[in-house]
Specification:
Blueprint lengths: L12 E4 L13 E8 L14 E6 L2 E5 L8 E9 L4 E8 L3 E8 L9 E9 L1
Antiparallel strand pairs: 1-2, 2-8, 3-4, 4-7, 5-8, 6-7
């Protein structure tokens, strides 16, 4: 099954091979969510609708999605910084959120803008 290639929208968004956004729907098999976190910001302007982001400390971001992902779902988060000379680490995920940390090349946490994708696949 080929993935829908229209993944990005100007305000973040969702695309699905089945055009179904709910994970618990029996027809939903693969769903791709994408968004942008602005450096040091808690703006949800570029996140999928209903998602939020917090920036509790320098370089640390928690994205809350409230999808209730469980053990019956594979969820993979990938992220890159918008500017070079930075790294992004996935600091963990739970059923309703994931955490990212951005660092400069010296290894010090530093705020940065991030592009992310959350890929979800029902098992």
């Amino acid at each position: 099954m080929a993935l829908n290639r229209n993944l990005a929208t100007s305000g973040g968004g969702v695309a699905s091979v089945d055009q179904v956004a709910r994970i618990d729907d029996l027809e939903a098999r693969e769903v791709i969510y994408s968004g942008i976190i602005l450096s040091g910001s808690t703006s949800d302007e570029y996140l999928p609708e209903g998602w939020t982001v917090t920036n509790p400390s320098v370089g640390n971001y928690t994205v809350t999605h409230s999808l209730d992902l469980n053990e019956a779902v594979d969820a993979i988060v990938t992220a890159t910084t918008v500017t070079g000379n930075m790294t992004v680490n996935n600091n963990g995920k739970d059923v309703n959120f994931f955490q990212l940390n951005t660092r400069n090349l010296s290894g010090t946490s530093e705020d940065a803008s991030i592009n992310f994708i959350l890929a979800v696949k029902a098992q």
